[in-house]
Amino acid sequence: MSIGYFNGDYIQLDQAVVPIDERGHQFGDGVYEVIRVYDGKPFMLDEHLRRLITSARAIKLQVEQSEEHFKALILEAVQKSNLLDCDVYLQITRGIAVRKHLFPEAPLSVSMTVRPMRVIEDSVRENGVTAMFHTDERWANCYIKSLNLLPNILAKQTAQDRGCFEAILVKDGYVTEGTSSNVYILKDGTVYTTPLSKQILSGVTRMAVEKVTHSLGIPFIEKMFTPDELLGADEVFMTSTSSEILPIVKVDEKDINQGNAGELTLKMHKKFKELIK
Ligand code: PDD
């Protein structure tokens, strides 16, 4: 069963518990993580919690709780949900205080949801998804997993309105990442992805992809690439906690790999599933 959590209490998802004067609600003043649980075990939880703490520090959130505390909280919530395969959303904000821009003297708010895993059907993965290019209109600190996602939301909705699954963001002539994913190209047997910087999120699935490529003997190179290079690639794929490794077969109406999911991409996904086990 799906459950929620807010500041110490387990709640129904539709229960009203967040006061009007809450910084996440009013300012998006907080950070979050999305963690996937396979067969009762959170996948790469340490990496997610490390990134959560990095994000929190970057926006000067004084998180007193340890990574161990959050680990125990997540495990407790998953257990209470009775779900074996689920998605955990964890959010920390600057707390509850009368609306004013300056940091308040208030305890941080911690909220969480646990819901059944949103599985991508095998047939969708095997056929691949379509995408479009979109200007990256986000701010200068996209390495922070901040609640402020307006440019991501607008780009993703534009993609959906044009019949695409994802928008691939482009800044100064180079691909950065997707609205909620990292993006890769495969050319002559080598995987290329955008180097880590303040412009992109350091994806946890991206770390897993690095491991997967090594185990398959596929070179993994961090290098900027242009939309044209992407269109000329042998294979294109995206990754995220919720999509895992997903082939992209058409971008801006142009076929990649004749519109077929890349063979190596699917092989990497198979290996990724083995890694989970
Ligand atoms: N999104 N880039 C962005 C902008 C993201 O929002 C995400 C994840 C990723 C991939 O990160 P990871 O592999 O750690 O999930 C890259 C999550 C799933 C979300 O916002 O729902």
Automatic annotation (TrEMBL):
The keyword Transferase applies. It is an enzyme of class 2 (transferase). GO terms for molecular function: D-alanine-2-oxoglutarate aminotransferase activity. Its EC number is 2.6.1.21. Its cofactor is pyridoxal 5'-phosphate. Keywords: Aminotransferase, Pyridoxal phosphate, Transferase. Pfam families: Aminotran_4. The keyword Cell wall biogenesis/degradation does not apply. Gene3D superfamilies: 3.30.470.10, D-amino Acid Aminotransferase, subunit A, domain 2 (3.20.10.10). It catalyses: D-alanine + 2-oxoglutarate = D-glutamate + pyruvate. Homodimer. Acts on the D-isomers of alanine, leucine, aspartate, glutamate, aminobutyrate, norvaline and asparagine. The enzyme transfers an amino group from a substrate D-amino acid to the pyridoxal phosphate cofactor to form pyridoxamine and an alpha-keto acid in the first half-reaction. Belongs to the class-IV pyridoxal-phosphate-dependent aminotransferase family. This is D-alanine aminotransferase.
